[in-house]
Amino acid sequence: MDWSTVTWDASGTSVSVSARSGNTPAPDGSWSAFTPVTASGASLGLSGRYLQYQLALSTADTAASPLLNAIGFACSQSTGQLPTPTSTNLPTSTPLPPPTTTPSPTPTNTPVPPSVAGCFIDDTVADFSLGTTAGTFVTNNGSVSLSPLLGERFDGTALPAGWITDLWDVGGGTTVASNALNVNGAWASTSNSYGAGTTLEFVATFQPTPWQHVGWSKDNDFNSPWAIFSTFNTTTSLYARTSDGTNTLIPGNWLGSPHRFRIQRTAAQAI
Fold it and tell me: Would you tell me how many other CB atoms lie within 10 Å of the CB of residue 24?
């Protein structure tokens, strides 16, 4: 098998890709050395029935989480063999330093990776979980990031360990299903607290219903200080709200579909 073009989709990060190939199921001395790929779209130029690749994620922007959304390897049959990729190998990366910059807290559309071509493509939790993922976290949509302090995929049927919930209203409740935490007339939070210098990043679907919130709070009684994304008292809009009374309308349509949100905490403010 001749391995040629390598393409990937990444955001907020620098990705270093290298790969090697061989004709034995487990890499041994007959395999090629790891060959670095200069850029997405470059040719790999390797031959062999099996392929193994490794990634290194890094970023110089502490306001952006490094993410690899998908990677694909093009190939052509040269000896009648079928491509059999080995498990993905993701080496441990150096954790990001605490955020110190001050970008505005603006939600962004949940990224939809562009088309990544190849005779095999890794872009799901199952794909990336086949390999060594030490130092990384695989999100529900199949993106790979550096390991956070806490990362949850809500891939069970109950709240994960370290999470708690209670009711705001009679008849309310919290459920976990289809890789999502669903909250209605209730609240859910981590049982641990996180101090200044910590960033909260999450994907959420706000419905056209008032008083939906996700963000930071001093405690589960919603005492100040707090900084949240919220539908506030509306059924049509989303706001960035803080406990000092600031309610900033976020232009656009943010309800009814998933979007990625981020709130950074410094010693003096949430940004």
Answer: 12
Residue pLDDT tens, the chain, 271 long: 899 999 998 877 778 899 999 999 889 999 999 999 988 999 999 999 999 999 888 877 766 677 888 899 998 886 554 455 554 444 434 343 444 433 445 555 544 444 576 777 887 888 887 777 777 888 877 788 888 888 898 989 999 999 999 999 899 999 999 889 999 999 999 999 988 888 898 999 999 999 999 999 999 888 999 999 999 999 999 999 999 999 999 999 999 999 989 998 888 877 7
* Termini Cα distance of the chain: 50
Residue 96 near residue 58, CB atoms below 8 Å: no
Beta bridge pairs of residue 75: 3
pTM strictly above 0.90: no
Query: CA angle at residue 16 from 15 to 21, to 5 degrees?
Result: 130
Phi, psi (deg, nearest 5) at residue 128:
-75, -25
- The beta-strand segments (E) located in 65-193 are 67-76, 84-85, 108-109, 120-122, 136-138, 144-146, 163-167, 173-177, 180-184, 186-190
φ/ψ of 172, rounded to 5, equals -75, 175
